[in-house]
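Subject: Glycosyltransferase 36 structure
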Amino acid sequence: MKFGYFDDAKKEYVITSPRTPLPWINYLGSKDFFSLISNTCGGYSFYKDAKLLRLTRYRYNNVPFDSNGHYYYIKEGDTIWNPGWMPTKTELDSYECHHGMGYSTFRSSKNDLSAELTAFVPVDDSCEINKLTLTNNGSAPKTFSVFSYVEFCLWNAMDDMTNFQRNFSTGEVEVHGSAIYHKTEYRERRNHYALYAVNAPIAGFDTDRDSFLGAYGENSAPEVVVTGASKDSMASGWAPVGSHHLSVSLAPGESKTFVFVLAYIENPIDQKWVGRPEDGVINRAPAEALMARYDTTEKADAALAALKEYWDKLLSHFTISSSEEKLDRMVNVWHQYQCMVTFNMSRSASYFESGIGRGMGFRDSCQDLLGFVHLIPDRARERILDIAATQFEDGSAYHQYQPLTKKGNSDIGSGFNDDPLWLIAGAAAYIKETGDYTILDEMTPYDSDPSKATDFMEHLRRSFHYTMEHLGPHGLPLIGRADWNDCLNLNCFSTEPGESFQTFGPSEGPNAESVFIAGMFVRYGKDYAAICRHRGMDDEAAVAEKAIADMEKTVLDAGWDGEWFLRAYDHYKNKVGSKECEEGKIFIEPQGFCVMAEIGLKEGNCLKAMQSVEKYLDTKYGIVLLQPAYHRYHVELGEISSYPPGYKENAGIFCHNNPWISIAETVVGRGSRAWQVYTRTCPAYIEDISEIHRTEPYVYSQMIAGKDARNFGEAKNSWLTGTAAWTFLDVSQYILGIRPDYDGLVIDPCIPSSLDDFTARRDFRGTTYHVTVKNPNHVEKGVISMTVDGKDVDVSGISGGMIPIALADGKKDVNVEVVMG
């Protein structure tokens, strides 16, 4: 069942019913200011950090769903309605929500009055623009009222929802003309405030929530809206809000447009004050300058056009054209769009993450780079160095850090032993894309302490050596608190039956080992060695190459279970993910990464592992994380078995590592199988089951309930997932096979035998490559010829073909033809 459709020409998903199974959201903003907006106008805004600089409130787990946002109430006679349906839920005569690239447009109507609301964040300003156009489609004049409404957050979102004894006494506002200033904290911090303004004279305003809603009122029927008259209330403590009252008259066929601005305003400390700071009087000059940039419909339209142009340019860096409409749709638009959002947000702010606890993830942000680096390499470079600055001197790292302060999250701490290797993965992706080795010379702190800094290359060295020097009894990497699977906590024990688990102390171990990290070590160790060679560090490269070879042998000796790779060993040297186990016999993670690392490829282990995944882990909705599911709690395994069977890490379909299997299938040359894995979780290919899947049909979710779950096929945690980057990497670099390397661009497709020719446009290091791939014999993998601007490129003895940088020779465009066979 569908609740909308893709409009490929406009790069939009059009939602045709407000009653979607869950709120279906979009992200506005691409740099510093962000808003989340749902298909019913729910959501909230923040500047840089969703915890520390939250502009508007949102209530998670609220009943009904999604009942706080940026709303416009239209009151005509006794009828009150909203362009996005919520929160009044008045039945509309028509409704559409268009989620586009950085903007959302709502088109709805009631009683011959139509409303078109477009919300977006301009490219270069820290504000959200709402352009509201009202049209009289009837034959008689109309007079009606519009009431805007936002509820301000008192900046620190965690403190805002807990510290009521203080916060109920801190709210402050100013109102000047049609501009409402939320200046809570300004008296204390004196450098920022929020602005909510409209470009028209107002009939009234409200800034106090209780006055606007009424005693015991609610936002589905605010007292001010019901009565049709604002109270001109001035918030003093309690809960500040922003509401404008517009009185509108329209002749038949007439339209009027209003432009609302919700902004974060930062006033430099050294700027000349208007009024005395000790009085808390704000300096309105920066706000007035911003309002002047959007005070007409034409200016707002120009900003929206610039935003669309910005996205068109970004998405032009990689495009394809094939016989698969859904493939083109996802590759050209939605995969890359979600990669941009995950780069900006990491896992911090969605409808499943409150923006308060997690901040930016070390592991998460490194992986997000893999799908983003081709879009804006300069920002990728900056992010890599930000991540590295949270690393410790021994090569380990904080697991998370706050985006505003760039400080590591001490509440979560460190000890996730896969983290260091992800830094190598991110750095390698950046260098392959850009050829910029100067990043290695950047002086970068440890633990965000400028007094402790080395060049970035030393950070990579310490990352690699941390794993090399932390090996367990079998010679496999120690897992620490956990590896990628945060819930697999193998260094745990219980002193007595029924007691909660404790962790081992330093003198007792911990000795649990991870085959997954071993696969990472081999895969990304090869990148580390290559970077060392390029830098002239031949001795270090030799050390790395020996360690990698030793680890490959160790995995084959101690990490192979006969048909698949083991998952791990616990502290007591018991196998995890083995045929010897009663539950959890086979896990997805080591199968993906060990095969991607080509461990045992020549010996046939990789193909056997892929066959075992297909045999034991496949379902119609994707590949589950493990089988059989854990049906009781295992204290020696930790959190993984605390979930009911089929959910999250306990045999859920973790979309994040499905592309690992798809990529691994391209390693063994099974293009049709790689394609099957890709399409089973790809949003465009499962749009028809939206009533089962429930989350947005245009982006990935983190998890789909597995075959052991009561709600098999139901998704959760949409938008912010490593699935975005990994899937774009999978389809663009491994299935389509167009991937950057240190010395050039590789073309090595591994496609389903049913796919014929396709073309691609790929910007790479200042040159646009126009690639045509032909598959006359319907093979799945293999390149028999390649030409670049008519000249043959040698593809003998290698898989696929490398186009050396020298062949581009400074050209703006080159034409590439590849024949598979």
